[in-house]
Amino acid sequence: MHTEALTGGFGDAPVDAARAFRGAMNAMARPGRIEDLAGAVPPAPLSVAAGVLVLTLCDAETPVYLAGDFDAPAVREWITFHTGAPFAGPGPEGAMFALGTWEALGPLEAYPVGTPEYPDRSTTLIVEMSELVAEGAVLRGPGIRETARLSLPEVAAFQRNASAFPLGLDFFFTCGDRVAALPRTTKVEG
Amino acid sequence: MNEYNFAYLDEQTKRMIRRAILKGLAIPGYQVPFASREMPMPYGWGTGGVQVSAATLVPEDRMKVIDQGADDTTNAVSIRKFFERTAGVETTEETGRATLIQTRHRIPEETLTEDQILVYQVPIPEPLRFLEPRETETRKMHALEEYGLMHVKLYEDISQHGAIATAYAYPVKVEGRYVMDPSPIPKFDNPKMEMAAIQLFGAGREQRIYALPPWCEVVSLDFEDHPFEPSKAEHDCDLCGAGDSYLDEVIVDDAGGRMFVCSDTDYCRGRRAAGHVGAQGVPYEEGAA
After folding, report:
1. ipTM of the modeled complex
2. What's the structural domain count of chain A?
3. What does the radius of gyration of chain A's CA atoms come to, in whole angstroms?
4. C-alpha A122: how far from its chain's center?
5. B90 φ/ψ angles, rounded to the nearest 5 degrees
């Protein structure tokens, strides 16, 4: 293990995690809304926002899937040291959280979408973006008064995901210290 | 500082609750199971709401706690003190100043904003529980969207009483999918649930969390020929004269004397401070009870 893995965690975990969760909750409750997250300095290629989400939501009870370039020793060591989360694949008995770029995370069919009795048992994907702005695809649904806009990586996949409601995947999008979210309830138009 | 971790709960518990809240927001009206903890208060005193509040609070919050609309009852006072001590947050009785409101069985009269969070204490989260006691069966009924039994119950109300007699915990359908128990709020409050604030529901003993994102579609179940009617006592508040607020009936002597007063104590105080006086009211004085 490199000593870099030991740094970059929350300075004051209870308070930093509380503030970060409020940001994540506001993002998930209001799809398309962009919130700022702070408090973690994770190793590349993890953004600050993705690192904060991992520290806030992951622990030994939540298997994490690292897709593509994110499956690097520095990232594994950092997540292991700070959260104790085990690593898993994307399959049906797999990860509760998945981290990576949109290209690396696909295809979405690999992830559990929950069961009719327990639709909450589905993966939450944390998608690292090169850009995150309130432009592009039009969003409608719970949490949005009329419409919102978000620069989504594509449209068809989210339409398919929403059509399976109440089953489905939920997404966080991270870029630098910014985060937005897209739950399965949101109707997306290109 | 004090000897407690911020907001009492340990970090792993808060993470587990936070994950449940996020899934709850993603599936509005669906009851997410969570590993409810023992809290230093008995079940029925808001242990679910307290755990949701503890997982949601930040040090900058100003917290308000109401019990049936009142800020000054034992339950509200003790929960407020609990978070003053364990989270060090500021508390308030003013709805407009609060950023997080924990409530037992009421929605404040004042319209909530998007900068506020409303946390409900829920005794029985399963709206079908009194119709079907088995959890395995109610879970299947939700999965299959099989809600006929609930309509039969409301229909039996009509056949026995001539109207839907359910006055509180009136079932709602969320986003056209899940039938949800709004907790035992009066049905007068049901139309307010399509609001700007995030609504979180915590049931401690029953180990369920559910949620409504802002502006979520919440429809009270009814029939075309018996539409849903939010009801309240046909009266104005005797202290502040409000005709639009939900009222409590208070017995004031042993000779049948009674008065109707706002159940939302902060709303009533605000109106009286602004100079409104009801039929039995006296002009408001600062600091008077």
Report:
1. 0.97
2. 1
3. 16
4. 12
5. -75, 150
CATH code of the domain containing A21: 3.40.50.11310
| Rounded-to-integer distance, Cα B100 and Cα B83, Å | 12
Spell out the domains of chain B, with CATH numbers in brackets.
Answer: 11-220 (3.40.50.11310), 232-279 (no CATH)
The encoded tokens of residue A154 equal 């594509």
Cα dist from A54 to A64, A85, A98, B67, whole Å? 9, 9, 10, 36
Each residue's pLDDT tens digit, A125-164: 999 999 999 999 999 999 999 999 999 999 999 999 999 9
User: Nearest residue on chain A to B4, judged by CA atoms?
Assistant: A14
Q: Which two tokens stand for residue A183?
A: 């739950």
Q: How confident is the model at residue B57 (pLDDT cuts 50, 70, 90)?
A: very high
How close does chain A come to B213, measured CA to CA in Å? 5
pTM to 2 decimal places: 0.96
The answer, yes or no, to whether the previous bond of B125 is cis (omega within 30 of 0) is no
Counting every residue written for chain A, the total comes to 190
| Contacting residues of B for A56, CB less than 8 Å apart | 15, 18
Domain hosting residue A165, numbered range? 3-189
Nearest by CB: A18 against B6, B196, B198: B6
- Partner B contacted by A63 (CB < 8 A): no
**Chain A residues within an 8 Å CB radius of B5:** 14
Q: Do A117 and B139 touch (CB under 8 A)?
A: yes
**Residue B26 near residue A116, CB atoms below 8 Å:** no
Q: Looking at chain A from residue 7 to 26, which residues have their Cβ under 8 Å from any Cβ of chain B?
A: 13-15, 17-19, 21-22, 24-26
Is residue B289's pLDDT more than 60?
no
Query: Is B93 exposed, middle or buried (CB count within 10 Å of its CB: 0-12, 13-18, 19+)?
Result: middle
For chain A, percent of residues with pLDDT exceeding 70 = 99
Average pLDDT on B46-75 reads 96
Query: Do the chains contact at B12 and A59, CB–CB below 8 Å?
Result: yes
Query: Residue B281 has what pLDDT?
Result: 85
Residue pointed to by tokens 């609060």? B98
Q: Say how many Å lie between the first and final Cα of chain A, rounded.
A: 45
What percent of chain B shows pLDDT beyond 90? 93
What is the rounded CA–CA span in Å between residue A151 and residue A169?
Answer: 18
Task: Check CB contact of A95 with chain B, cutoff 8 Å.
Answer: no
Least CB-CB distance to A56: which of B18, B56, B216?
A: B18
